[in-house]
Design brief:
Double Stranded RNA Binding Domain, three-stranded antiparallel β-sheet, 10 helices, 53% helix, 12% strand
């Protein structure tokens, strides 16, 4: 818009409406982007249904989906680097406001998810819960993200010195996943083959069967840890732990309300823990 057109537009703003004045007015082009109207607000039932279908998603997935739904070009960018002197990955997640969120773990996916929990915390503080389809209530949203964070921190902790054989067997038992392990009888060197959830893995040869089995199990564990499946598994464990804790607290409260004596309370608590 040149200066003459600008003056005309301003002057016309203050004139009484007259269709004849506007009839001969030249087209005025501006650089204003074509803004899209906001999507219609969901009612409570619609929002709850969508939340239920995505409540087990990883924090990183929640963040990515928010940008896909809005069809935004400025997707969060992540940068990874190894921490000097360690095997730790550092993920720096940049959002559209140029804020940086940092996650650190032995697996890239875990580091990215931890960084995403901080981004979600910030979104909650800014009242942007609905953009990410997390609970509308601020307290519930914070608890929701915190459960995910605790599951991720446990993943990060176990990966410091993992026992991959135990970890993949526990996962298989939890989800009833088929797992078979075979080692060759003649050796050394020994090799181990693990069939896990329909896929076959072979690790490096070892001087003992246990060493070979651990090598192959390590490959299975690393692949699991970089997937959303393993996060959901840890999240389900964390939710189960919280629910069991609440059930025990309720039983104690019920016993106290029923008139249980303080003398046998400690004995009852020990029995519950056992």
């Amino acid at each position: 818009m040149d200066e003459e057109e600008t003056d005309m537009a301003i002057s016309l703003c203050f004139e009484p409406h007259d269709q004849h004045v506007y009839r001969d007015m030249p087209n005025i082009w501006t650089d204003t982007p074509n803004l899209q109207p906001p999507p219609p607000k969901m009612n409570d039932d619609q929002y709850r249904a969508y939340f239920e279908s995505h409540k087990n998603d990883s924090p990183y997935t929640l963040v990515k989906n928010r940008y896909f739904r809005a069809d935004l070009d400025n997707m969060p960018k992540e940068k990874y680097q190894k921490e000097p002197g360690t095997n730790l990955w550092i993920c720096r997640l940049h959002d559209e406001k140029k804020d940086i969120y940092v996650g650190t773990a032995y697996h890239q996916k875990t580091a990215a998810n931890l960084a995403a929990t901080d981004l979600l915390d910030n979104a909650i503080e800014w009242g942007q819960n609905e953009l990410f389809y997390i609970p509308r209530n601020k307290y519930e949203a914070k608890h929701y993200v915190d459960v995910k964070r605790k599951a991720l921190l446990k993943m990060a902790e176990e990966s410091k010195n993992p026992n991959p054989i135990n970890l993949i067997n526990e996962y298989a038992q939890f989800y009833n996943v088929n797992i078979e392990t075979k080692e060759n009888d003649e050796g050394p060197p020994f090799t181990s083959t693990i069939e896990f959830d329909g896929e076959t893995y072979v690790g490096e040869a070892g001087t003992t069967k246990k060493e070979a089995r651990r090598s192959t199990a390590g490959i299975v564990y690393d692949k699991l840890a970089e997937s959303d499946k393993y996060f959901r598994y840890k999240q389900e464990q964390e939710v189960a732990r919280i629910q069991n804790k609440l059930k025990k607290s309720k039983r104690r409260a019920d016993k106290k309300k029923a008139g249980g004596s303080s003398d046998n309370k400690g004995v009852a608590d020990e029995a519950e823990i056992g």
